[in-house]
Write the structure tokens for this entry.
Amino acid sequence: MDKIITVGGMIGLGKSSVSALLGEELGLPVYYESVDDNPVLARFYTASVEEQEKERLPFLLQLYFLGTRFKSIKENIKDKQGVLDRSIFEDVYFAKRNAEYGKLIGENRISDLELQIYLNLFDEMMEETTDYNKAHGTKAPDVMVYLRASFETVMHRIGMRGRDFEQDESLVEYYRFLWEGYDEWVYKHYKASEVITIDMDVIDVVNNEEDARKVVEQVKSYLETKGA
């Protein structure tokens, strides 16, 4: 199957589980988000404000995700197929929201200069992949599977996931800030592919086989209808 699918959505909603499900059912390789081996992630969540600003942790985290995502994209487009656990375009969303959130709460999370450097690097990466696509006949994603849910569901799923560094009460407003902008970004600013929305308030692909089947059939039906 010559398909490229990205799975996106808020922290904790099950992107890795949905990616694994689609990869298995559609016979596609899965390129997972780098979390367990991420040298910055836990520190980003647990460091004090002073430590974050001194060590530039939000900026380093976004650079790390951007680099690992770009590596996955290069592997993905060579194979001309696969499921990507989060879109590189979402990394840009997170970088911009982190910068905005810092200004909102009076913290220097990602400075204007850092954000511009980040965006310039992203543009260079996109230009390189576009050139590769043209030369080798590969393509943009066929679809993004967007996992959408209420904020209450997001917080419940983050709690159920049980990563200690994600549980601090001080993170709730940060999660809310990310969540509040997600729909607008997906439906108004994401242009790389069309979007299938999965309502994670009622779907549980891990514990409900019927839900898992419904998600797979919805994605299959879309791909067949579009001739992707």
